[in-house]
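Quick start: read one record
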Amino acid sequence: MNKSVCVLLFALFVNDIPSILFGQNLQWVSSNPFKGGSIRVFAERENGDIYGMNDGAIFLSTDEGMNWSLIKQFSLGSEEHLNSLTVSGSGIICVAKNSYSAGSILISRDAGASWELLILPKQLNGYSCFFTTGDTLIVSSFNFYRTGDLGKSWDTLGYSGYGAGQYSGFTKARTGRLFYFGDYGRVGYSDDNGGHWKSAVNLTVGNLIHAACSNSLNEIFVSHSDGISASSDTGNTWFLKNTGLFDYFTNGLVIDSNNTLFAGTTYTGVYASTNSGVSWQQVNNGLYDTHIFSVFLTRKNILLAASSDRVFRTVTTLSAPSNAKNSRASQLYPNPTHGICQLTYNNSDRKSVGLSIFDILGNEVLKIKDRNEGAGVTTEEIDARGLLSGSYFCRLQIGDQVEIKPFQVIR
């Protein structure tokens, strides 16, 4: 093995040390038993109350997921099921009830004690719902609808073309862009709080999309039936991020304030990634049921995982390694690139910065910088016009912290 390959492998190993340490320190504990069936979806009120939902019931926890009480068991037909759960800033609960022949939106204004049916502009057979800001509610089926007065009046926002199947749903990126993920890998987005919608590049894998989230670098991550897909350009291009996953059927995905990703899988428990999905490691200490339906991060940074018959929660609040913040705060855009791209990173202290490009054999093909820099956010231009089409690694070293970012050059 030549020297450059050794250097690259060592850098990859160093890059994954925070993930390894994080996995060793995370510990799970089971919630107390509760009646009503297993939970599939979570939502949280601003006061810290956490709601859970399965195909036919709503649950409430007021102690960060340790104890759960059944607050509503819906009377459903043989083909009916609850599809999505969302809670507004003022505590209004909204669920979508769907079937093969009809769908409806139900809300509760009194923490689940009573429920009322929202009258929709058009009766369809499937919906997803999401509170964007305040009590503004977006509903999707074959059209997008929006109401700011809980159903007294509606705006029809046009044909969505995405459908509202069993796993469809919404997520809001930190840029403010609102994403909608429909069946069969279809993705749409809105930059004006749902007022107008455009089609993003659809995922070519993972017909069943289960969850989505975004980090402080504006990267979007989606969990689906073929693993995890990620986009660093707000949905224009997508790449699979499955290295380290033993089970590709991912059912849940969340991200904490330190950009650590957590994914729940059907058979092998929960995984964590501290490097934007480049690599994953199991974090199953104390998780004795590894059939995970959903993961959720509370406002107090407690991680919840819904298994086949109970809810697990982390023993303590999440706290990623402090040194992870320096070397994880970079974004490469556009990726793939046709020639010139930009790497933005944060040097929190006055440290030396090294930046180089390696090919897949470990050869350094482009050395961009190796010098001391002042503290702050820097954007460095990478001119890859002299590189052949293919896969490469961008190696960023800030002080003694190393980050490896894969990227592609396309001609």
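The first strand starts at residue 28 and ends at 30.
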